[in-house]
């Protein structure tokens, strides 16, 4: 009986650890599209350093909703692929959205490579 309870608790913990939303960083790039895997039936959150001004998809096979600095993306079909351009204050970011049936991207934090550059003035 204890063995069965131990196995049940272990299975629950394993399920809980694998179902936790995973967060990763992705660069904002206007020259090269960055792949974003959107799992069908789930929402992918793309967080930007600023509130997006405009979202321009290639095809309407994904649904978009903006809440503050977040862009929430959900797949409207079980398979599909398109690009999307997101305009920020003085930047644009290009993404390649791909519908997947398995594990997709849960939370993406967009990092602007220009934010990590500092201007150094020499006397």
Please describe what this structure looks like.
The protein has a five-stranded mixed beta sheet with strand order 1-9-3-6-5, with no helix packed on it. The protein is globular. The chain is built from one helix and nine strands; from the N terminus they run H-E-E-E-E-E-E-E-E-E. The chain starts with a helix and ends in a 12-residue tail after the last strand. The chain has a single domain (21-112), classed as Immunoglobulin-like, CATH 2.60.40.1080. By secondary structure, it is mainly β.
Question: Brief overview, please?
Answer:
The chain has a single domain, classed as Sandwich (Immunoglobulin-like), CATH 2.60.40.1080.
Rounded mean pLDDT is 83
Distance from first to last alpha carbon: 76 Å
Judging from the principal axes of the Cα atoms, what is the shape? Answer: globular
The count of helical stretches stands at 1
Radius of gyration from the alpha-carbon trace, in angstroms: 19 Å
Strand order, biggest sheet?
Answer: 1-9-3-6-5
Give the fraction of residues assigned to helices: 10-25%
Q: How do the helices and strands follow one another from N- to C-terminus?
A: HEEEEEEEEE
Task: Break the fold down into its secondary structure elements and pairings.
Layout: H1 2-18, E1 23-27, E2 34-39, E3 43-47, E4 54-57, E5 62-67, E6 70-75, E7 81-87, E8 92-100, E9 107-111
Parallel strand pairs: 1-9, 2-8, 3-9
Antiparallel strand pairs: 3-6, 4-7, 5-6, 7-8
